[in-house]
Each structure stands twice: as C-alpha cells, then as structure tokens.
Amino acid sequence: MDLFNLSGKTAIVTGALGLIGQKHCEALANAGANVVVADVNGDKAIAFAAQLGGQHLGLGFDVTDKAALENTRAIIIDRYNAIDILVNNAAINDMFENPALAKDLSAFENYPVEVFQRSLDVNITGVFLCSQVFGDVMAKQRSGSIINVASTYGMVGPDQSIYKNEQGEQIFYKSAAYPVTKGAVINFTRFLAAYWGAKGVRVNTLSPGGVENGQDAFFIQNYSARTLLGRMAAANDYQGALVFLASDASAYMTGANLVVDGGWTAI
After folding, report:
1. Helices (H) then strands (E): counts for the chain
2. What residue stretch is flagged as signal peptide (predicted)?
3. How far apart are CA 248 and CA 35, in angstroms?
4. How many Cβ atoms from other residues are within 10 Å of residue 114's Cβ?
5. The CATH number of the domain where 62 resides is what?
6. I need a labelling partner for 119 at 20 to 30 A (CA). Which of 63, 83, 125, 178 fits?
C-alpha cells in the first residue's frame, strides 16, 4: 500500500467545490497529500480546506486568468516548496435555469455561440493554462503527476435518448460544448505526456461516467439501463482511480485515459 502513499506531496485540485471535486480533495488528503482546494469561490474554498484539516489550503482563482494562476503558484511554492500533483477538474457542464427553455436552448440549431465559447475557455484553455503554470514547476523538479478529468462523452457521442421523459418527450439535448471540450482534453493529455515525459512528469486522463445527484427519476433510470453495472456513479466512485493516477502505483503510466464509467463505453 506504500505505492499509494502521498505523504509530503502537494496536490492542486481545480473546480474543487464541485460534486466530485470535493471527493477528489478528500481522497488526496486521506492518502496523505497537502491539498490546495482551488475554486472560483475563494471563501468557500478556504472553508472546505479547513474542514479537511490544518495543513490544507483554500484558494480562489479563475482558471482562465494566467496572472492569477502565477500569483497562486507563488503562494503554493512559498507554503509547500513544491507542486507534485495537479488535478484539472474545473469545467462547465451545461445548466439551463429555466427548464421550460432547456430543450430549445440546448438544441444544436439554437445553441448560443457565446455559451460554447465559454466552455472552450474554461474546459480547454483552463486546462492548458493550469498545466502550463503549475506543470512548469513539475518539469523543473523533474517529477509530478497531472490528471486531466475528461468524460465518457469525450470518447463517444451523447446518447440523446436518455434525456427523454416517461412520455418519450425530449426534455433536453446534450450540447456540443461538453463532448467537444472533453475530447480535446483527452488529446491534450497525449500531447503533454509526450512533451514532458523525458522530464519525469506523467500526464493522464481520468474519464468518469455520470454521477447520480438528484436528477429526475426518468433520467436516472434511462442512464442506469444504458450502463453495464446498472447504475449511475456515486460521487466517491472515482477516489481510488484518482489516488492511483496521482501516486507511484501508476509510475509507469502516462498518456493514458483511465475510463471509470460502469461500462458505459463498452457497448
């Protein structure tokens, strides 16, 4: 089990206050790492870091703001002297406040280009910038692990039928933004693994499936029926995979895409 021990390591998790972001932080902390809880909401990030324990740090920044990332890097190095793990978890996934308009707004023909652009900014450029700013430290250390969180929809097209209710009515469409950006993340992982491999920086993708989180009953049923294990993921189903990728347990693994999806992409 020493292979999974992260004692003394410093880990940054972006989008740390999200549903699985919090579980990522908890898993890394339980494995012994010093966790930097990073999110756009700095006050809540500080509060969550305090819940994890005294050695952890909460910081607020926008992943698309390079100057803010560089300032953050200085704070982290000053406190911990190293950056060993980066989990690029921050991402936008479409949410429409008015359910009555969700179908029309999410349809490709009507999908707002400014919403698409914002997803590109956060889901792709944010991963690029965080890897550039924090990964540079790893390259100079000649060690580190970057974990880019993608999705099953980065590998396969969305199954639009799961967004139909019990009456067969289409309630929502999965838009182009999430699959496009998550597919890009997977290939960016390959680029970065090839670029920094000689410097001892490992870069891998974690591709999770859908997490049950109070969705409509019809959606949970539709999704579960489409999955080999017959259920959606629990928020903590990715903790073991994350620690594996962060630790020496995956020391000979880079440029890979670890798919943890209950069998969604197997058929």
Report:
1. 9, 7
2. none
3. 17
4. 7
5. 3.40.50.720
6. 83
Tens-place pLDDT, residues 120-156: 999 999 999 999 999 999 999 999 999 999 999 999 9
Catalytic residues: 178
Q: Which amino acid is at 99?
A: P
Taking each helix axis from N to C end, the angle separating 19-30 and 42-52, rounded to the nearest 10 degrees, works out to 40
For 187, the 3-state DSSP assignment is helix
Residue 176 lies in a domain: yes
Say if 247 falls within a structural domain: yes
Number of folded domains in the chain?
1
Helices 66-80 and 126-141: crossing angle, nearest 10°? 30
Token pair recorded at residue 126: 């944010």
**Whole-Å CA distances, 230 to 15, 119, 215, 261:** 28, 30, 16, 11
Cβ 192 vs Cβ 138: under 8 Å: no
Three-class SS state of 185: helix
Find tokens 């294990």 and name the residue: 229
Is 162 among the domain residues? Answer: yes
Which residues constitute the domain of residue 185? 2-260
* pLDDT tens column, 39-67: 999 999 999 999 998 899 999 999 999 99
Asked, for residue 141, whether it belongs to a domain, the answer is yes
